[in-house]
Design a protein that fits this description.
about 450 residues; alpha/beta; GMP Synthetase, Chain A, domain 3; Rossmann fold; Helicase, Ruva Protein, domain 3; about 55% helix; binds adenosine-5'-diphosphate; binds magnesium ion
């Protein structure tokens, strides 16, 4: 049975000592909602709240499987206190989680994703202009509009900006996953008519990450009919995708051709000037004080997504506030170094097996086998220890990789290596050497 201590322990395991002492340690369990999988925790200040929300997804990635099912909410302690005070007066629950049946419309639009907040540069100008035009004259000019491009480049932002701009209309903005789930529930509950009523009677249909329906032919069939009906009534349809529709594998040709009927707009990686403008805008919105020198440093050293830039700014600000220090260039360099090494840390299980195999002269297939000979069993334990260190995979997932009966064998292997490091001369060096080889090989 999962309880709050188990959750906190998992968070501790998946963070470094700095993060633990500055953030994780300050998280307090508040309550478990009657919905048995929903745990509420409080944090003392906004910086920790921002940090935890930012890190949460990556920490969650490392959580063991049974914890992935639960819902965790973090709230500011102050807000919980306020809510508790009102609660005792008004007898209202702390959090009201609404059910979301198909026919009940709840706005899913992110209020901060508006055109005014969107920084335009060469990389996204066409997508911006076509989105704005679709919002100003829905169904008139570009229908459908398909915005495509890599992760964290602003597709969802533009989609929601269109929705927010058209707020006086009946806008549906959902991910393709929600669309699929709604359809499945409707099928199960024999409620297809409300599904159709919802999706075929709107003024604007916005679907995020349409690539999700690739390979799922039932939902593609349904979407095809939804699309045709809306399109024939000149209702604006906007889709986002991680690839150009023609390049989405597992998408029916008739959908590809529908998607290419209107206009497709690509968002590329931002150029330096756009990155600088985005950083300035984010700092202005979040009240973060950094010099032009630091802005340029971040913009030139981070190449990928805008989401990543946001993440670094948040981390920078949160850490600076926690340790009560101004954001200097030196401080930024350290945070960025740590960030880059974390995001480059794409060491896989196979990489680790290959290094251990070469170095200890044992075949990869033997490491993965059930052979219990002393030398092979030791190599397997070392591999498990290193996998846990480098990939932060849960013990359950490591156990299933090695076809072990349960995760306690993994924990046992890790404990044994830790004790060997302590008790056997030069063992520490042996493990550290392997770690350096892994890091070097991956670079
Ligand atoms: P995608 O859907 O392409 O993966 P998002 O739209 O979620 O990316 O963008 C990631 C983050 O970056 C969001 O917080 C978004 O507001 C921000 N962002 C992306 N592009 C811009 C931009 N041009 N100007 C300002 N913020 C942006
Ligand atoms: Mg998105």
């Amino acid at each position: 049975m999962i309880n709050a201590d188990i959750i906190l322990e998992e968070f501790k395991k998946n963070s470094n000592s700095f993060e633990y002492s500055k953030c994780i340690k300050k998280i307090t369990f508040q309550e478990k909602l009657s919905n048995e999988n929903n745990f509420i925790f409080s944090v003392p200040n906004i910086f920790i709240l921002k940090w935890i929300n930012h890190r949460y997804t990556s920490i969650l990635g490392g959580l063991s499987n049974d914890l992935k099912e639960i819902e965790i909410d973090f709230l500011l302690f102050k807000d919980i206190k306020d809510k508790l005070n009102t609660k005792s007066k008004e007898k209202t629950p702390i959090i009201i989680k609404e059910e979301n049946p198909i026919n009940k419309k709840i706005s899913t639009l992110l209020p901060s994703n508006i055109f005014d907040n969107f920084i335009v540069g060469a990389s996204n100008q066409f997508a911006y202009v076509t989105s704005l035009s679709s919002a100003q004259k829905p169904g008139k000019e570009f229908n459908p509009l398909v915005i495509y491009g890599g992760v964290g480049l602003g597709k969802t932002h533009l989609l929601h900006a269109i929705g927010n701009h058209c707020s006086s209309l009946d806008v549906i903005c959902v991910t393709a996953e929600t669309f699929t789930n709604d359809f499945t529930h409707a099928l199960i509950n024999k409620n297809l008519s409300s599904f159709k009523k919802k999706y075929r009677n709107c003024d604007v249909l916005l679907i995020d990450d349409i690539q999700f329906i690739s390979g799922k032919f039932g939902i593609q069939e349904e979407f095809f009919h939804t699309f045709n009906e809306l399109h024939s009534k000149s209702i604006q349809i906007v889709l986002t995708s991680d690839k150009k529709p023609n390049n989405i594998k597992g998408l029916e040709d008739r959908l590809k051709s529908r998607f290419e009927m209107g206009i497709t707009a690509n968002i590329k990686q931002p150029e330096l000037e756009t990155k600088i403008n985005i950083i300035k805008k984010k700092c202005e919105i979040d009240n973060i004080n950094i010099s032009d020198e630091i802005t340029i440093y971040i913009a030139t050293n981070l190449n990928s997504s805008i989401r990543e830039i946001e993440g670094v700014l948040m981390k920078l600000n949160a850490y600076a506030n926690m340790i009560n220090q101004n954001i200097t260039l030196e401080f930024t360099k350290n945070i960025l170094k740590e960030h880059i090494s974390q995001s480059n840390n794409k060491i896989s299980t196979e990489d680790i097996i290959n290094v251990v195999s070469k170095k200890l002269n044992i075949k990869p297939s033997e490491i993965k086998s059930k052979n219990k000979s002393k030398k092979i069993a030791e190599a397997r334990r070392i591999t498990i220890f290193l996998i846990r260190e480098f990939t932060k995979q849960s013990t359950i997932s490591i156990a299933s990789f090695f076809f072990m009966k349960d995760h306690s064998s993994v924990s046992h292997a890790i404990r044994k290596i830790k004790s060997d490091i302590k008790n056997i001369e030069d063992y520490h060096k042996k493990i550290e050497d392997l770690k350096s080889i892994i890091l070097l090989e991956i670079k």
